Amino acid sequence: MAKSSSLNVRVVEGRALPAKDVSGSSDPYCIVKVDDEVVARTATIWRSLSPFWGEEYTVHLPLDFHHLAFYVLDEDTVGHDDIIGKISLSREAIAADPRGIDSWISLSHVDPDAEVQGEICLAVQMLEDVRGRCLRCHVLQARDLAPRDIFGTSDPFARVFWGSQSLETSTIKKTRFPHWDEVLELREMPGSPSPLRVELWDWDIVGKNDFLGMEDAASPLAVLEELTSGDCRQELATKLVKLFFGQGLAGPFLDYLTRREVARTTDPNTLFRSNSLASKSMEQFLKLVGMPYLHEVLRPVINRVFEEKMYMELDPCRMDLGRTRRISFKGAPSEEHVREASLGLLTGYLGPIMDAIVGSVGRCPPAIRLAFKQLRQCVEERFPQAEHEDVKNLAISGFLFLRFFAPAILTPKLFDLRDQHADPQTSRSLLLLAKAVQSIGNLGQQLGQGKELWMAPLHPFLLQSISRVRDFLNQLVDVDGKEEPGGPARALVLPSVTVREGYLLKHKEEPTGLAPRFAFKKRYFRLSGEMLSYSRSPECQMRSSIPVSHIRAVERVDEGAFQLPHVMQVVTQDGAGALHTTYLQCKNVNELNQWLSALRKASAPNPDKLAAWHPGAFRSAHWTCCLQAERSAAGCSRTHSAVTLGDWSDPLDPDAETQMVYRQLLLGRDRLRMKFLEDSTLDTTPEADTEKGSSATEGACPDALAHQREAAARLLEVLADLDQAHEEFQHQEQRKVAPGPLRP
What we know:
- By secondary structure, the protein is α+β, with helices and mostly antiparallel strands.
- The chain has 17 helices and 24 strands.
- Among the domains are: about 5-95, C2 domain (Immunoglobulin-like), CATH 2.60.40; about 120-200, Immunoglobulin-like, CATH 2.60.40; about 290-320 and about 335-365 and about 385-475, GTPase Activation - p120gap, domain 1 (GTPase Activation - p120GAP, domain 1, Orthogonal Bundle); about 500-640, Pleckstrin-homology domain (PH domain)/Phosphotyrosine-binding domain (PTB) (PH-domain like), CATH 2.30.29.
- The strands form 7 sheets. A 7-stranded antiparallel β-sheet has the order 17-16-15-14-20-19-18, covered by helices on one side. Strands 3-2-5-6 form a 4-stranded antiparallel β-sheet.
- A hairpin with an 8-residue loop joins strand 16 (about 530-535) and strand 17 (about 545).
- Helix 3 packs across helix 4 and helix 4 (about 250-265) packs across helix 5 (about 275-310).
- Mean pLDDT is about 80; it is low at about 485-490, about 510-520, about 680-710 and about 730-744.
- Pfam families: BTK (PF00779), C2 (PF00168), PH (PF00169), RasGAP (PF00616).
- One of its GO terms (molecular function) is zinc ion binding.
- One of its GO terms (biological process) is intracellular signal transduction.
């Protein structure tokens, strides 16, 4: 099988390049890289900003290559060559068009700290003695590091991090291929487990050290992130957040992901801007824990926008003067009149929104506040410089405003703030409000920039709000850190917050007979984190209630039990241990699913949940579902914790979440094999090394290969065990539901 494929590359010319020399010109040349390996270099065209190279190469691409890059540099006789820009083409982009790419492509800016290259060889071992656990990191060597000094070399040293501890190797001068062979030992500190991280730096006697690259010790979460992308990564993040949250480990989980993301970010302006597993997980955590809080903050103003249906527009290109009300008796309103009226309406909505947000510190769930406190500390440690003072606030506001409040304002239905989508006019009003909130969340960084200069009339209000938001963020993270964020599942529903309310038809079980239709009485129900209460009307002060902590099951009822559709049952247990059932009928299947979801979510942490119950009713001395004659007979159907509507309000379901993670591992099995086992077939016996000559010594060191094979073997064992466990589980489930022989 071929190990590589060929690609014809022609570097033709450049134009309008920037001047890098004091003479107002440049001396450009181009290099071609496959991943991090330079494969070709053009001649230098002296004193030209529109160079013509006209050079052609045949490049051999390995089958597993990721991207092909072209760097344009300015050659200097003294010091470093200046990087003018680069073009990067992914493997997918190259393969997308069999005819090839033949066009002008704009150069992109190059961040030197992001242009890392090379490899490092480590041997890591966990030891235990009477003093506890110790991580032993044997830093062997590195190769092909980026040159950072003016002579084309570097002075590299390694820095090893484990939790709050760090140790450094010695510095090897003037080399890109350092050999350390040093052992660093770090003791385990109290607290949650931390990943191992190794950073390489170029030591400088003057100025700050230059970053050369970083390596994280491979973890299951890192592997899962590599196997997923797009919508699949968002689904994975949702399941992982629920899985860890249900075990009281959301805090360590989020802290690990955010620290990993922050550590590998060199430009603070790009922090959490990608759809990484860390960004998606924090976003889903906010939805899981903070949705009642979001409803309390935003719902009053969102309802006003929907009900008042006011026309608002600041963009002159979109103004429709015919749809506006007459502002004066002198004729149709002008653009200026519409702009002033719209500005008044927008600030009239934005004012209460910002008042509600900055005044909500005490109502924000403690789990979110603690997660943000951890995030802020992590960012401060990574970017302590004075010029990055605002990064710690932007990291928090980026999640809270840009990924939570602003999307909820833009599409209220997706956040359960409204039952229906907005009409076009209301959608435009919501878009303007969301843009304003987004600008406030950016803390004014991009205010007045870009194409939307028509937002300028709002700038005074936005700038005033930004200072309030900074104070709000400082108060938000001023919280006791002793409690772990995302601990017990009951934090999902705050006791004082109304999760759902509305009219339902209620019937309580009766000892005999089939209840007639009129036995279902119309009552107004309210569900909070601690109580399901009901009364004749919303205003009625006389209420009956069911403590949420007494709920043992929330299930659908077969339509034949009462000859009525959309009925559910709430099974509760009193202090004496007796079970009671309340039957509730909803208007339609959507409302039924919404109430099922809300009740199961509120009662998720309750102990002693029922494993089985009856989907029918007990009448005529037997159960309508299984025909058992004893009212106290064991249930004939399994109870459920999940619902049919897949959204943020689904109850925690560890089985479903674990199954999804397992499915991702199965789907990525081949990629994992290629990644971890691609070199496992190499023969590293001394005889084989002799036969292969220098090629074996130029590859990975024997210790690294041994560790790679060991990891690959463990991975295969884990996948095999998962396969076997999955098959056994399926057989058990089939035996559980297998019907017996039919009887006459």
